UniProtKB/TrEMBL annotation:
This is Thioredoxin domain-containing protein. SUPFAM superfamilies: Thioredoxin-like (SSF52833). It comes from the Eukaryota. One of its GO terms (molecular function) is protein disulfide isomerase activity. PROSITE patterns: THIOREDOXIN_1, THIOREDOXIN_2. The chain crosses the membrane at residues 692-711. It holds the Pfam family Thioredoxin. One of its GO terms (biological process) is protein folding. Residues 1-26 form the signal peptide. InterPro entries: PDI, Thioredoxin-like_sf, Thioredoxin_CS, Thioredoxin_domain. The keyword Transmembrane applies. CDD domains: PDI_a_family. It comes from Pichia membranifaciens NRRL Y-2026.
Length: 739
């Protein structure tokens, strides 16, 4: 009985403690009462649809018993007041503003159930008519991230300047967009796969059946179609699909593109054959998204081009929409493969034979475009020359850069363009004030780099005076798919890149592909605040350093090639002088010079980075030894792309900045050719330290054992030799003292 009393006493104490905690959470303090008075009261099922009837809205669904909601509330008040001040309480510009609300899911449980709220706090973006347009999935939820989410949704969903002919409401799901997106069935898809379509078709493959998703309910809202609430990624993808139609409306209106969707659960055999088995399973992963294929007509090769990027991994909806629409646009352009004038290709890409000098302020250069151009000789071309081009459409579509594929027979214009670029770069652009005659145009070096047979393949880039050339001495080389693809993958990056969270894996690949990349590649990071004058200085700095070091790198390769060729010819001359066998002379002539201009040895990738984003990049890349507080706008960091080292000072200890581009070029020469060692980017992780320390401990132990054994043997030997003669043997016994 005494034990029972003690148990009851403990239970009463715990019950009282829980009641106290519940009251503390449920009843806000005086300070929290003040915060509640600064925001509108929560919406309920009675007024939710009426308030959200027009315009855009950011809504937080919360529970008063949720600790995370309680922690977020002061920030939510700050978010509300910040946007009230920015937009104005009576702002007339409804297309560029949004209202902010809350919903208490304890008081309005039915409403939260209708909206499919699964956790708290959940922040959503709604359009007119209570249409769900997006959900905030990023953490942490603070003033900056919430503003970023809301503004990004506004950019995506509001009426853009080039859409004056379209009512903004047409962008909102619930209204059929052009009535173009149609469900297709198995028979029609099989004809498309066989290439019988006359218009390119962009088809999305869904993990649904025809009863779950069809022409009647595809545009339904989140809470009107159960499939959207069951699988969280399907509703955002539907919105993305609609937005992509809007962005590609010109192609649709000109009958150059059609949109369709296909249900894999109703047609599992077809989807499994296409490699989409995961879309046919009865229980699918919550993170699964539809897959996309662009089917081209037979007239353009009849290729099925797959969109291989994962939509749900993009940083935001705007980025995902841009990725899919731009991928579609450039794939359609790449599939045409018509004979074009080279000047038209230049104009489209923005490549030139002249660049602005230091101090020039004009329009900001778009460095994004890259083109691979097959150059045919009209007098000798044959149909086999172009066979490889249709095979290259898919791998080029897979690249994350803005890469295009063209063909031309304007070979004289191409050769003149290459020469003009090289002369401009060598004789003018890479000289700052003082003309260095040793750096001038070298005819022999130019011919060594550009000499090739036709058809030839070149790479031209916007904002660049350097165009790589695929070296080919026989026509079979340019028809070798793997060799050409290797050339493309080595050169597809723009001359200058923007380093962001989304682009970091492209600029710093997680693994080294030794067939494509070299361990000696470098990334040059320049910090900018994007102010016009400062940005133009950053732009010139990156461009100058890239062009001068590229010229120096090519000259180093040329000198080594020339030296090896001279040695080869000397050897052949010696064999002939000694009247060697003709087979030996032929073997000597066939010896390859294993140095190429098309490898990525010491290749440089200049990138610019928002100074404010440096800590975020350092954290994402896990560069634990890089201290962001040491750097400011205009500073420069040279990163070893694959070996985890960096340089932010020259060998004299002077900080790298954009003020002295020659200083950075000099450092690059010493790092590349004299192997100047950099500083480590990362601390060793625990997993790396354990084997390292274990190895050191084993090494120390083995050394100790070896020394100890040696000393023991030496002691025995000394004792053994005591009292003996020079030979250590007793003459009478003819044996050692210790035998």
């Amino acid at each position: 009985m005494p034990q029972m009393k003690h148990i009851l006493l403990v239970c009463w104490i715990l019950l009282g403690f829980n009641i106290g905690i519940s009251q503390a959470v449920a009843k806000p303090s005086t300070g929290e009462d003040d915060l509640h008075s600064r925001v509108p009261p929560p919406l309920t099922a009675t007024d939710f649809d009426k308030v959200l009837e027009e315009g855009f809205h950011v809504v937080e669904f919360f529970s008063p018993y949720c600790p995370h909601c309680t922690q977020l509330f002061p920030t939510w008040v700050e978010f509300y007041e910040y946007n009230q001040n920015m937009n104005g309480k009576n702002s007339k510009d409804k297309s560029n503003s949004f209202q902010i609300h809350q919903v208490d899911c304890v008081a309005s449980g039915d409403l939260c159930e209708r909206e499919g709220i699964q956790f708290y706090p959940m922040i959503r973006f709604y359009g007119a008519g209570s249409k769900l347009l997006g959900s905030m999935t990023t953490n942490p939820k603070d003033l900056d991230t919430m503003n970023e989410f809301a503004n990004e949704q506004i950019i995506v969903w509001s009426e853009s300047e080039d859409d004056d002919d379209m009512d903004a409401s047409a962008l909102i799901p619930g209204t059929p967009l052009y009535n173009q997106n149609k469900m297709i069935k198995a028979g029609e898809l099989l004809k498309i796969i066989e290439g019988e379509n006359t218009v390119p078709k962009l088809i999305s493959f869904w993990p649904t059946s025809e009863s779950e998703l069809n022409n009647q309910n595809f545009q339904n809202d989140y809470n009107q179609n159960k499939i959207f609430s069951y699988y969280p990624n399907l509703h955002p993808f539907r919105n993305l699909w609609n937005l992509s139609m809007k962005k590609l409306k010109n192609f649709i209106n000109e009958d150059k593109l059609e949109f369709n969707f296909f249900n894999c659960k109703s047609n599992p055999e077809i989807c499994e054959t296409l490699g989409f088995k995961s879309l046919t399973e009865s229980r699918i992963s919550p993170n699964l998204s539809p897959q996309v294929i662009l089917y081209l007509p037979k007239t353009t090769g009849g290729n099925a081009i797959s969109y291989k990027l994962k939509i749900n991994e993009f940083h935001n909806l705007n980025t995902a929409v841009k990725s899919l629409t731009h991928w579609t646009q450039r794939t359609l352009i790449n599939s045409e493969l018509e004979d074009m004038k080279f000047q038209d290709i230049q104009d489209f890409i923005g490549s030139s034979t002249k660049l602005s000098r230091k101090g020039s302020i004009g329009e900001i250069t778009d460095y994004s475009k890259v083109a691979f151009v097959q150059v045919n000789d009209p007098e000798s071309e044959v149909p086999e020359d172009d066979a490889i081009l249709s095979r290259l459409i898919q791998p080029i579509a897979d690249l994350k850069s803005d890469v295009y594929l063209f063909r031309t027979t304007d070979k004289d214009a191409v050769m003149k363009f290459l020469r003009d670029q090289e002369e401009q770069m060598a004789n003018k652009y890479i000289h700052l004030g003082v003309q260095d005659t040793a750096m001038n145009f070298d005819e022999k070096m130019f011919l060594s780099r550009t000499h090739t047979t036709f058809p030839m393949m070149i790479c031209i880039k916007s904002g660049s005076l350097y165009s790589p050339v695929f070296t080919s001495f026989m026509s079979k080389h340019i028809r070798d798919y793997n060799k050409v693809l290797t050339f493309i993958k080595r050169n597809y990056m723009p001359t200058i890149n923007h380093l962001t969270i989304d682009s970091k894996d492209q600029i710093f690949p997680p693994t080294l592909n030794e067939r494509i990349n070299s361990r000696t590649e470098k990334v040059l990071i320049t910090l900018t605040d994007f102010q016009p004058k400062q940005y133009f200085d950053v732009e010139f700095f990156m461009s100058f350093v890239f062009h001068k070091f590229t010229f120096l790198n090519n000259r180093d390769k040329f000198n080594r090639i020339d030296e090896k060729r001279s040695m080869k010819y000397d050897k052949v001359g010696e064999l002939r002088a000694n009247k060697a066998d003709s087979d030996d002379i032929i073997d000597a002539l066939r010896e390859k010079v294993d140095i190429s201009y098309t490898t990525t040895d010491n290749q440089l990738y200049p990138v610019y980075l928002d100074t404010k984003k440096l800590p975020e990049i350092i954290s994402a890349m896990k560069w634990s030894k890089l201290d962001s507080s040491r750097y400011t706008t205009g500073d420069v960091i040279l990163i070893d792309r694959f070996n985890g080292r960096y340089w932010d000072e020259d060998d004299s200890g002077h900080k790298l900045t954009i003020e002295d581009p020659q200083q950075t070029v000099g450092l690059l020469e010493k790092v590349s050719y004299k192997k100047l060692k950099g500083k480590s980017l990362k601390h060793l992780s625990l997993f790396a330290k354990v084997p390292l320390y274990s190895f050191i401990a084993i090494l120390i132990f083995m050394t100790y054992r070896a020394v100890r054994v040696y000393l023991q043997k030496r002691t025995v030997y000394i004792e053994k030799m005591k009292g003996l003669g020079i030979l250590g043997v007793c003459p009478e016994l003819e044996e050692s003292k210790f035998d």
